[in-house]
Amino acid sequence: MKLAILSANPSLYSTNRLKEAAEKRGHDVEVINHNHCYVAMETDANSVYLGDHELEGFDAIIPRIGASVTFYGSSIIRQFEVKHVYTTLSSLALVRSRDKLRATQVLAKHGIGIPKTVFAKQPRDVQNLIKTVGGPPLIVKLLEGTQGLGVVLAETKTAAKSVIEAFYGLNANILVQEFIKEAGGSDIRALVVGGKVVAAYKRQGQEGEFRSNLHRGGMGVKIKLSALEKKTAIAATKALGLNVAGVDMLRSDRGPLVLEVNSSPGIEGVERVTGIDVADKIIAFVETQIDRPLTKTKDKVGV
Fold this sequence. Notes:
This protein has helices spanning 13-24, 70-82, 91-98, 100-109, 126-132, 157-169, 227-239, 268-274, 278-289, 297-300, and strands at 2-7, 28-32, 37-42, 45-50, 53-54, 60-64, 86-87, 117-118, 138-142, 151-154, 174-178, 186-193, 196-204, 219-222, 244-252, 255-262. The chain is an alpha+beta fold and 303 residues long. A five-stranded antiparallel β-sheet has the order 14-13-12-15-16, with helices on both faces. A four-stranded parallel β-sheet has the order 2-1-6-7, with helices on both faces. It has a four-stranded antiparallel β-sheet with strand order 8-11-9-10, covered by helices on one side.
């Protein structure tokens, strides 16, 4: 099988591990910087180029698209899709999952547990926003934030009002979300591949830090998910049309609540904490999909 890993940085841990795993299983692998690619279109002809070289002959691609280049990355994926190249991440699923508001709306529509969340554009709605999520403490989250950046805990009504108004003053798009106290500054990251949870671990924030991201200094420990937690993680990826995803959940008094579904999850943290070869599981999944892809046709063309 000839594979392409779309990654802007070939030295990243996740990119390297996927390449190693694919080569170990006997596949021909090429790491391609999608930011350096371009597409050419004409009637009945669609091509992807890297410099003056047309990218052809690939059986599958594994996109690793950064949040800052979602739009461009999705256009490159889409061009491979119309050429009937299998992708672990469809262009539509990438765009859907990266829009935090849209993703939250989709999860809610499918009956998946989420923290109470509100979105508004007008500063005059601040008091109602605070009231709707149950009052302080509450979370204010930038729609464009990643890795815990752009996420603020407001512990009082005055602080919440000030933070929300400050973001509105910057013309930023934000979500206001209830604070789940019983989570104790921890969350769960579950890696889902092909509709199965292949690894999971709990991330615990440092003392005094409500964000549990490993990038923010959080600690990880291997855990066993409950049946409901597994069901929730799988349902969340299915709702967003994802084949490979990292699902972040909180343990609450009313069951697991999904915070975010990452369509290009890093595998360094989960592999080091759990000792599970997630990269190998992703490549093994791709092997099964070349002849019988799970991705729906409507997702493949991004409509």
